[in-house]
Amino acid sequence: MAAIGHPPTERATVAVSEVDEQAARRTLREQIGRLERELTSARLAAHSPVAPGPPPPARGGPRRLSLGELERVRGELTGRLAAVRDAVDARLLRQAEARMLLERMLADPPSHRWRRISHEQLGEPGCKHFHVRPRLGPVGLLMGWWRVKISSGCPLAC
């Protein structure tokens, strides 16, 4: 039996769990906010569009999410951030490989006959191309005179 003027012990337990739940909610919301900022920063740092992935599923309008739902949102954001970072890393690797190939093409054009690299492959703006072609057309082809020809870029709009 509870003494007069003292609350039952059940209420004290509920108050402690509510405080813990509020702290957990605050922590999860902070983590979700940080992950959203990192996801945006990762896309912006890529300097070119990165597929954002599928949109998050609809959650049924504004409401207070449970701890489980907040954890699920955090997990989804973590997965999306990892996917964007992997896509950026893969693209940077392809661009580095293209730059190394361009260096080899410039150093030894005859061993890279007819190869073509665009500024897009290098991660550069514009539509310039580097193309290994014979110098002086058919005569250069027969004589083995190869060079890297650089296009002038995008044609003018009419």
- Give the end-to-end Cα distance, rounded to a whole number of Å: 92 Å
DSSP summary, beta strand count = 3
The class by helix and strand makeup works out as mainly alpha
Number of domains: 2
What is the fold's blueprint, element by element?
Elements: H1 9-45, H2 67-107, E1 116-118, H3 119-122, E2 129-134, H4 138-143, E3 146-150
Antiparallel strand pairs: 1-2, 2-3
Helix pairs in contact: 1-2
Please tag this protein with its features.
single chain, mainly alpha, 3-stranded antiparallel sheet, 158 residues, 4 helices
Structure in words:
The longest helix is centred in the middle third of the chain and has 41 residues, at about 65-105. The chain starts with 8 loop residues before the first helix and ends in an 8-residue tail after the last strand. It is built from four helices and three strands. It has about 160 residues and is mostly helical. The chain folds into two domains: about 15-45 and about 70-105; about 110-158, no CATH class. It has helices at about 10-45, 65-105, 120, 140-145, and strands at about 115-120, 130-135, 145-150. Helix 1 (about 10-45) runs parallel beside helix 2. The chain is rod-shaped and about 85 Å long. It has a three-stranded antiparallel β-sheet.
